[in-house]
Amino acid sequence: MKLRRLAATDLAAFQAYRGDPDVGRWQGWTPQADEQALAFLNEMATIPLFQPGQWSQLAVADAQTDRLIGDLGIHVSADGLEAEFGFSLARAAQGRGIATAAVRAAIALVFEQTGVQRIHAQTDARNSACIRLLERLPARLLARIETEFRGEACVEWRYELAQR
């Protein structure tokens, strides 16, 4: 696994896993038409990474082939002191420790390149795979949040992934 910038050449792989309802079940994003997805990939390929108040998306790629297998979103707070992570991984790449390795690598990158002091992630309490991943990091459960997701009442868990 390696982290890199997203690229226009990732379109087919990006659309494949982002179009998979099982991958997207717990995500805040929804599948996009090719034109919108390509615009997003091009934007993420060129924007400055880790800007306060903005989301950055990194590619999770296969180390041997460089083929896109997922992506990791990182939002740095407006004051630059906190970051929130989100991640998506193609179903065929799940269950092999790739997402755990990608999150760990991204945490190191954010701490190396920013003044971020704490990193968080939030997930639906029913997303057991994500919860297992967060606990493997290990992340610390901070809060239980009653909210609404896609028009449905739910509970989300907020975790602290790391702090400086």
Identify the notable features of this structure and list them briefly.
Aminopeptidase, transferase, seven-stranded mixed β-sheet, EC 2.3.1.82, alpha+beta, GNAT_dom
Provide structural commentary.
This protein is an alpha+beta fold and 164 residues long. It has a single domain, classed as Aminopeptidase (3-Layer(aba) Sandwich). Helix content is 30%, strand content 35%. It has 5 helices and 7 strands, in the order βαααβββαβαββ. It has helices spanning 11-18, 21-24, 34-46, 98-113, 128-136; strands at 2-5, 55-61, 68-76, 82-89, 118-124, 140-149, 152-163. Strands 1-2-3-4-5-7-6 form a 7-stranded mixed β-sheet, with helices on both faces. The longest helix is centred in the middle third of the chain and has 16 residues, at 98-113. It is globular. The mean pLDDT is 96. Keywords: Acyltransferase, Transferase. GO terms for molecular function: aminoglycoside 6'-N-acetyltransferase activity.
Distance between the termini: 24 Å
Number of helices: 5
Low-confidence stretches: none
Q: Which quaternary structure do these chains form?
A: single chain
| Class inferred from helices and paired strands | alpha+beta
Q: What's the name of the CATH homologous superfamily?
A: Gcn5-related N-acetyltransferase (GNAT)
> Which fold name corresponds to the CATH topology?
Aminopeptidase
**Helical coverage, percent range:** 25-40%
